Amino acid sequence: MTALKQIKIARAGYILISVLFYISGIGCLIVPDISPKAAAIAAGIILIAYGIIKITGYLSQDLFCLAFQYDFACGIFLIVLGIVVLAIGSKFEGHLLSGLGCLILMDSLLCIQTSMDAKKFGLATWFVILASSILSGTFGVVLIVMNTQIIAGFSLLAEGFMRQYIVQCTVSLSPRHNRDDEEKENDDTTS
After folding, report:
1. What residues does each domain of the chain span?
2. Which of 17-26, 66-75, 143-152 has the lowest mean pLDDT?
3. Helices (H) and strands (E) in the chain, counts
4. pTM of the complete model
5. Taking a C-beta distance cutoff of 8 angstroms, is the pair 22, 165 a contact?
6. Residue 141 burial (C-beta neighbours within 10 Å; 0-12, 13-18, 19+)
7. pLDDT the model gives residue 181
8. Which of 18, 30, 96, 111 has the least C-beta neighbours within 10 A?
9. What CA–CA distance (Å, rounded) separates 85 from 106?
């Protein structure tokens, strides 16, 4: 698989996860009395999918290496957590929202660091990355403390926006990848 294809898959995966966050967030706002069992199943599946996408992003050859820099360990963590939630989700009944708040807070803190790296790279969008990360992290903290579906909805919407914005602003689909892929093909055919 070429580097450009890997990056396109990872980028599309992040946008898909952002859409799932938007849908989940709107669902929490519209149906705040969702069944804990249904929430645990949905959370487990989304965590596993998100983990796979994070690992895919990490393994891609992104030009700036900003959006995916912490994603290998985070991806494994999310997959394991997703499996645990699916296996014993009923035991997490009172803690699912607090756990979500912790995950959003952790992701937001890593994205604050990404915004600082983006600033060093000279990306003009670093400030929006920082602001969206702070907003998402704030919702994560409020969710840990207040533990309500409404706050969860706003937290998921903020997380979705933050993730989508970061991947669209920092993941380069540059012509360099096409040149690298063509050079690799030429090297392979001459060998």
Report:
1. 3-183
2. 66-75
3. 7, 0
4. 0.83
5. no
6. middle
7. 46
8. 30
9. 18
Q: What are phi and psi of 67, to 5 degrees?
A: -65, -30
User: What pLDDT band is residue 25 in, cutting at 50, 70 and 90?
Assistant: very high
Which pLDDT score is estimated for 59? 86
Closest CA to 96 of 141, 51, 36, 38: 36
| HSE-up (13 A, CA, CB side) for residue 73 | 5
Residue whose pair of structure tokens reads 């992040």 in the numeric block: 14
Q: Which residues, 6 or more positions from 72, have their beta carbon under 8 angstroms from its beta carbon?
A: 54, 55, 58, 59
Say how many residues make up the chain.
191
* HSE toward the beta carbon, residue 15, CA cutoff 13 A: 10
CA 174 from chain center: how many Å? 22
Taking residues 117-131, report their average pLDDT.
92
Record the tokens describing residue 150, joined without a space.
């409404």
Angle at 27 between CA 108 and CA 150, to 5 degrees: 60
Q: Buried b / exposed e across 166-176, counting CB within 10 Å, b at 16+?
A: bbebbbbeeee
Render pLDDT for 126-184 as a digit per residue (tens, 0 to 9).
999 999 999 999 999 999 999 899 999 999 999 999 999 998 888 876 655 444 445 55
CA distance 43 to 46: 5
**Closest listed residue to residue 141, CA positions, set 112, 111, 114, 103:** 103
What is the distance between the alpha carbons of residues 13 and 140, in angstroms, rounded to a whole number?
23
Structure tokens at 35: 């069944």
